[in-house]
Amino acid sequence: MASASYTAKDITVLEGLEPVRKRPGMYIGGVGATGLHHLVWEILDNSVDEAMNGYASNIRVTLHANGSSITIEDDGRGIPIDRHGSGKGARSAVEVIFTVLHAGGKFERGSYKTAGGLHGVGASVVNALSKELVVTVKRDGASWEMRFKQGRAAGALRKLGPARGTGTRVFFQPDAAIFPKIEFDPAVIRQRLEIASYLHKGLKIAFEDEAARAAVVFEHHDGILDYLRAIVGARAARPVHETPFTLAKDEALRVDLALQWTEATDEELRSYVNGIPTGSGGTHESGLRAGVGKAIRNFIETHNLSPKGVTIAADDIREGMTGVLSVFLAEPQFQGQTKDRLNNPELVSAIDGLVRPALEHWLHHNISVAEAIVARIILASRAREASRAAQAEVSRKSATSGRLNLPGKLSDCTNPSSEASELFIVEGDSAGGSAKQGRDRVRQAILPLRGKVLNAESASLAKVLENKELSDLVTALGCGLGKNFEIGRLRYGKVIILADADSDGNHIATLLLTFLYRHLPQLVAGGRVYLAQPPLYRIDIGKDTFWALDDAQRDATLKQHANLRGTPEITRFKGLGEMMPKVLWETTLNPRTRRLLRVEIADQIATDRIINELMGKDASARFRFIMERADEAQELDV
């Protein structure tokens, strides 16, 4: 079979801007909404470049009433209007910039120190893909205009008349022959403009949406610090520390950085190079992450804060970290024309070398803030290790059916999943029976613990989840564990531990608190966990009855009411099961008369260490603790 002829006649040479119209996806990524808006970013970047290099301070963007055309104007130097080249081929610089690929003022370092548009294709690509484009330039005391259609000049550059000031205005309407749908999104444009105002503090950007008759001006004097505050606020993630870490260097490499750790479960880092968002990251982000990791680890080692029983991973350090990184380079190497990823290999060590010493110095000079960040990191590492086994175990138990299989021993309230509902974790069947009879059935649920509560600190997570009491508690709460945790699925507003007011009760309460702190730390941090305060003594003097939580309160009550007639009758409760339901309601369950202690963590690092020492597998720390405090134990229940 003879092959088809293939000769020089089959080679097509596309002239001028024809390649752009033939293959627009190569230059703007596609002809959908993203590609359409990319046209705006190309012209906007040119105006921002003027501001970035100190030549402009105002940019105005107008989305016209038809929704398909835009004007972008700045008060920069104005595009040069003199002729480029010599002889018959000489054209105005305006025409060259808008009709020739790879033509611009950013290839040489003299005109721009840093710039977002470096390929010299932005203006010409927008022109090539526009039905109509009009450039108006103010410079040298006059105003000049040039019109284009589908990338070709529709006339020569003409002088409109005298004008004050300098600047460039570009109007363009994308070509319907290229884009199937031409409809700019005001919200997308507005967001991009606001981000630009954050990255270039002092720059004022006005946006007008003619169709909506809405106008707004963006100007942020604190730059990326304002941006970081806006991101943290929008994510509704509570900050771990109030004052963010900031770094500003303006040398050969200009770097602006703001970091803040929050209680969010993911990392949020937004990076920019010469004002261009790098959504796919790159070498500048790699350098930042390396510097942050080294600084945190050095601080932990220096202050001996390494937690026992877990290994801190890089992801633990960055969990909850929210940051904005803005880098300005003379010669950035982007991946593709859409500039979504930075490839400069030297940036890894350069950013690392700036961030690590600066962050480490900041941590050492802000110890309380640093310890709060380290506590957050330790919490993340423990949650990660816990979730490894929990994810499989909880998924296996909860995915067996679409409905929630509640434990049979749970006496649920009629209104779970409301903020006013409460779950009482009660020690023993006897106490559970009294609590069930005395409770408010509408909003109070009772979960009695019938067996031994496992020490969650000394056992593997697999063992913890095999323990029926703890497994039933997780199921009753409904919010999952580890990575499966969702606070929105929590079935109760309050989780209340109700144990006897003696040493055995204290032991059970401690075991439950250890489990909640290690495996459901979000409940403790969110102020959802409480300790009930049942009385240990009932004191009857004549017709009056008093309740005392402990010996000290008993003695104080007797002293305070010594003037009352009658011999005091003191009843010591051996356990909650001895209380009549009505008494348990009045003293412990009734929101109007009860006393609850909210579980709060003042110092997470200290709490983590104490729990590990007193509840962990190593008995030596417990022995030391007991021996050092033996003289404080005046009375023990044996």
Number of domains: 4
The biggest sheet amounts to: 9 strands, mixed
Helix content: 25-40%
Distance between the termini: 101 Å
Name the shape in a single word. Answer: elongated
- In DSSP terms (H or I, runs of 4 or more residues), the helix count works out at 20
Commentary on this structure:
37% of the residues lie in helices and 21% in strands. It is α+β, with helices and mostly antiparallel strands. It has four domains: 201 residues, 2-Layer Sandwich (Heat Shock Protein 90), CATH 3.30.565; 154 residues, 2-Layer Sandwich (Ribosomal Protein S5, domain 2), CATH 3.30.230.10; 190 residues, 3-Layer(aba) Sandwich (Rossmann fold), CATH 3.40.50.670; 36 residues. Strands 1, 2, 5, 6, 7, 8, 9, 10 and 11 form a nine-stranded mixed sheet that branches. It starts with 17 loop residues before the first helix and ends in a 10-residue tail after the last helix. The C terminus is likely disordered.
Which features does this protein show?
24 strands, 4 domains, alpha+beta, Heat Shock Protein 90, 638 residues, Rossmann fold, 37% helix, 20 helices, Ribosomal Protein S5, domain 2, 21% strand, disordered C terminus, nine-stranded mixed β-sheet, five-stranded mixed β-sheet
Gist of the model:
The protein has 638 residues and is an alpha+beta fold. Helix content is 37%, strand content 21%. A hairpin with a 2-residue loop joins strand 14 and strand 15.
Topology:
Layout (H helix, E strand, L loop, with lengths): L17 H5 L2 H4 L4 H20 L5 E6 L6 E5 L8 E2 L6 E2 H7 L22 H7 L1 E10 L2 E8 L2 E2 L4 E5 L4 E8 L11 H14 L4 E6 L4 E5 L5 H12 L9 E6 L3 E8 L6 E6 L2 E2 L5 H20 L11 H5 L2 E8 L18 H18 L2 H32 L19 E10 L1 H10 L5 E6 L11 H6 L1 H10 L14 E7 L4 H17 L1 H5 L3 E4 L4 E5 L2 E5 L2 H10 L8 E4 L8 H9 L6 E3 L5 H12 L3 H10 L10
Parallel strand pairs: 1-10, 14-16, 17-18, 17-19, 19-20
Antiparallel strand pairs: 1-2, 2-9, 3-4, 5-6, 5-9, 6-7, 6-8, 10-11, 12-13, 13-16, 14-15, 20-24, 21-22, 21-23
Helix pairs in contact: 3-5, 3-6, 8-10, 12-18
